[in-house]
Specification:
The complex is a heterotetramer, with two copies of chain A (about 260 residues) and two copies of chain B (about 325 residues). With about 260 residues, chain A is of the alpha/beta class. Chain A has one domain: Glutaconate Coenzyme A-transferase, CATH 3.40.1080.10. In chain A, about 25% of the residues lie in helices and about 20% in strands. Chain A is built from seven helices and 14 strands. Chain A has an eight-stranded mixed sheet, sandwiched between helices. A two-stranded antiparallel sheet of chain A has the order 3-4. A two-stranded antiparallel sheet of chain A has the order 6-7. The longest helix of chain A is centred in the first third of the chain and has 12 residues. In chain B, the strands form three sheets. In chain B, strands 1, 2, 4, 6, 10, 11, 12, 13 and 14 form a nine-stranded mixed sheet that branches. A three-stranded antiparallel sheet of chain B has the order 7-9-8, with helices on one face. In chain B, strands 3-5 form a two-stranded parallel sheet. In chain B, α1 crosses α2, α2 packs parallel to α3 and α5 packs across α7. Classes of the chains: A alpha/beta (about 260), B alpha/beta (about 325). Chains in contact: A-B, A-C, B-C, B-D, C-D. Chains B and D meet through β13 of B and β4 of D.
Chain lengths: ~260, ~325, ~325, ~260
């Protein structure tokens, strides 16, 4: 047994991708934790903002929604959607968006709208919200996913948010000025995208899994040749995450058995 | 003192008609115009056409109660209490509503274009996505009533030959905007505390505006700090006094969202009969907000009451 | 405490280059970034390319001192003190500057488009006018540096076949925005009291932002009321402490415009030699704002000091 | 000698065109007086706003500029240009704009930019400011002019602000949704526009002038057949204007000799 949970290593793995000074477009859940833990550990000048308009809140309590009143306190500016969503694409800033989705394809395109079709709907998800905006306009995107075959698919039922489109140069050819997914952080490992083909490959796997298990849970062929074991959470990282970021474990959920 | 001050019953009777396109203020769990939404259900409005970005508990009730025929939205959910809105999902899957998907930025820009009188607005957000390629509204509905002739249009950048493609979006000018604010002057001037979401754009874009508010204050008071105000009186058609008028969603500086109520709703909402029972218990009986609040109970209201240092209820049990 | 706090001398040295496109904050007689403008003159910047809506005393000085080559504007004047700016008029008539005329709404929309990352913005304002038909910039300048390839374009409404024509305007993304505000936090957060004009759009559209302010206050203080703030610290490159930094234009809640100074300027401005004498007396000698204010005189500063009940100086002799 | 000045009868004549509930886009000078006097006499629910963003200020002192701090006090809302200029075209409201100009043609098109041309400039005026926006978007426009041949011209040197364009239906054909000049108030009389041709005609002349004098000061042929004497300022109107609206006579200038 490890002394950390999948949620914890996910939050920390994503947080490590944040650079000091980044402007972070956070959702709730794990993305909130990743942003906050990065700020507390190695990126103190990173700024968290919410699509609802809260810019750089103090976050004394964890918001459970991007419209939580907890995103409106201690902020530099309280504004609204127009202001916050404009910031996503601002060329002065390295804006990094954390997104989740129901489905992802090998180029990091996302579905958070539905299964089936408008004519024959099978399942409905909430829809883009600001996800498609972030995927279109931000400097970079970090995707959180549950690693399951039905979520890592050959073809999205609905294409909500643009990743690397069909790979290669297609994103630029379409008219996007920047952006694209940087990494996919799952409960099994961290995936990245090849610099030329923009196809997903396995970058790192957690100690409690293996490249083979990840391949089995991925619904399209995936390059394992560059896979390496993921760096373990340090004691200091876990302490910050548990004691400062989510002490009530509202998002992290139960502690690992070992620690309990 | 303006004669626009009235009850929700009067406001809905006067300004909301069957088939109207309605913009709902607030965002998921915050500042939803719940008191007005409940009144719309009580007055059994039909075939409403919602235009929203990220809704929210008000949309859940209105769709669940069968008031809605058509929705343009970016997001349908109540955050952690319903990652996808139960009644929204069910109505979509059972094809009892037609849904057109946009993004939050697109919807905000469309409200802004409507508010500013711009003929359209352009963005690159959504290029190549199904949001741009597909439409959830039936072809027969196109061009009728408020349904735009086209969902949107993708064109080459008219200014920059090398600029690639851009998405051209039609403005929104809803028949009615509903919003809940903290303060209204007795002249009708409005003030929002905390984030404004897209409420101001929505109100300015709409033909009629119904505002419910926590408190009505004298004109002389609200105009002492006009930098903080967001809507001039002539933009507003009805001011509805409604303490806790966004409950069970939050209202910054007044109260938090109500996790007890939202968790209870979460349990009942997926089932048709149980949802009906919710309406029978929490919506139909209460013409007055005071009676509704008595049912919520003073104990619960005190739990969610905001502490002025934070504007929310610190330490509230939100599980 | 941010390391962005610096003198006007340091800010101009670091962030303003010859040939830069500069957006000036304020409007005619209000909140012109005068302290920074004087410093730009002292540092003898050349070939500046102003992008403004309705300027204003700062533009008068910059054009008069020979710092400016090119202007996009809607209005050049100092209200009653110069219905048309003397130095602006003279430079235009003597062809020492190239001028491109737009409208206030068009300029505001262009700054907004720049701030929001919109590929362009559309309006019907100006259809059929010479603003739309003619260009004051030379054909040779087109497409070079910040000069847009086209002033604007008139196209058929792409969404509505019966919608007639619309004017498509290019966004503005100036190299530098200059603005004067009432308060900045020691973290760089900015707050404007009273009207914001298009200052916020201008700052958000720009690549670099220099803000002068009446007072610097602690981060903890300015963030107590974030609804009143207008710019986050990361948007700002330099914070310049500058009490009376908009003088002789007004700064709401701090001081009125200075009619004595503006009337004096009005007398001197039309004549080249006398204007030069004005610069020698009021601009070149003063590296520090304190020395400039000493020359203005405490008596005059007290006359224009704002009364907090109104935010201006009631009863001020404004003839 | 009359017991009122040209400025006074101009302000009052323009003020009479205001209806209760109108949303008035005011400049400074006479337009400010016309709006304020109308509010005090017969249109108490009219609202004055400024392109700078001040909506419905208390106007305890007369602003000398649209950016005067006096337009920011007692307002319903303090905003900025984007908000105020958007209000001009709002289809819910009868927005009336008061404009001045250096030149006007028979269809009420205005020049406030220059004489000569960009190549050969002869005189420079401030430029459109918000005038072209108001002329394009407002419900109606009231123009203030000094009545001189060189200002009432066959052809504008520069076409800054659209009036009735070339008359008839041309304004609608161009794409404008509403608007057009309602009246031109000069120091000699009040001019209106024919409902079909949209050509300017003389509607009313002040007692101290005559249709013939007005025709002589107008640089294009003008229909005098509908001219009638202008209603005189009443004592009550003059009292309001002098005692409440501009007691310092900052804009009105000297009192008439008779009154002095």
């Amino acid at each position: 047994m490890e002394n950390y949970t999948a949620s914890e290593i996910m939050a920390l793995s994503a947080g490590r991708l944040v650079q000091n000074g980044d402007i972070l477009f956070a959702g709730t859940g794990l993305s909130m934790l990743a942003a906050t833990v990065a700020k507390r550990i190695h990126a103190p000048e990173a700024v968290v903002f919410f699509e609802t308009g809260g810019i750089d809140p103090s976050l004394e309590e964890l918001p459970l929604a991007v419209a939580d009143p907890r995103v409106m306190v201690g902020t530099a500016v309280n504004s609204g959607l127009a202001d916050a969503l404009s910031l996503l694409g601002h060329p002065r800033f390295r804006t990094i968006a954390f997104l989740g989705a129901a489905q992802i394809d090998r180029f990091g395109n996302l579905n958070s709208t539905m299964l089936g079709s408008y004519d024959k709907p099978v399942q409905r998800f909430p829809g883009s919200g600001g996800a498609c905006d972030a995927a279109s306009l931000a400097y970079g995107v970090i995707v959180f996913m549950q690693h399951q075959r039905r979520r890592f698919v050959e073809k999205l039922d609905y294409f909500t948010s643009p990743g690397w489109l069909s790979g290669g140069m297609s994103r630029w050819e379409a008219g996007f000025k920047r952006g694209g997914p940087m990494a996919v952080v799952t409960n099994l490992g961290v995936l990245a995208f090849d610099n030329d083909t923009r196809e997903m490959y396995l970058d790192a796997y957690y100690p409690f899994t293996s490249p083979e298990k990840i391949a089995a849970e991925t619904g399209f062929p995936i390059d394992l040749s560059r896979a390496r074991p993921c760096a373990l959470p340090t004691e200091a990282e876990l302490k910050t995450l548990r004691q400062e970021v989510d002490p009530q474990r509202l998002i992290l959920g139960p502690l690992p058995v070992e620690v309990l | 003192m303006t004669d626009k001050i009235m009850t929700a019953g009067e406001a809905v009777d006067k300004f909301v008609e069957n088939g109207d396109q309605i913009a709902l203020g607030g965002f998921t769990v915050n500042r939803n115009p719940m008191h007005i939404a409940r009144e719309i259900i009580r007055q059994r409005r039909k075939d409403l056409y919602l235009a929203v970005h990220s809704q929210g508990q008000a949309m859940e009730l209105l769709i669940g109660a069968g008031c809605v025929r058509r929705v343009e939205l970016a997001y349908g959910g109540v955050a952690r209490f319903a990652p996808t809105g139960y009644r929204f999902k069910k109505a979509f899957l059972e094809k009892r509503i037609e849904v057109e998907d946009y993004t939050n930025y697109q919807m905000t820009l469309r409200f802004m274009a409507g508010a500013m009188g711009l003929p359209f607005v352009a963005t690159r957000s959504g290029l190549c996505s199904d949001i741009v390629r597909l439409s959830g509204f039936s072809p027969e509905s196109r061009g009728h009533g408020k349904v735009p002739a086209q969902k949107l249009k993708v064109i080459d950048d008219p200014l920059e030959p090398q600029g690639g493609q851009v998405v051209i979006l039609p403005p929104l000018n809803p028949d009615v905007a509903l919003m809940h604010v903290q303060y209204a002057g007795d002249d009708g001037t409005c003030r929002i505390n905390g984030l404004t979401f897209a409420d101001i754009e929505q109100a300015k874009a709409a033909r009629k505006v119904i505002v419910s508010c926590e408190q009505i204050v004298p004109k002389e008071f609200i105009r002492r700090e006009p930098d903080q105000n967001c809507l001039a009186p002539f933009m507003v058609d009805a001011i509805v006094p409604a303490p806790f008028g966004a409950h069970p969603t939050a209202c910054h500086a007044f109260y938090d969202y109500d996790p007890m109520h939202l968790n209870m709703f979460k349990k009942l909402a997926p089932d048709d009969d149980q949802f009906q029972a919710y309406l029978e218990q929490w919506v139909y009986p209460f013409e007055s907000q005071e009676d509704y609040l008595a049912a919520v109970g003073i104990g619960n209201l005190l739990k969610i009451r905001a502490n002025p240092a934070w504007g929310y209820a610190p330490g509230l049990d939100r599980r």
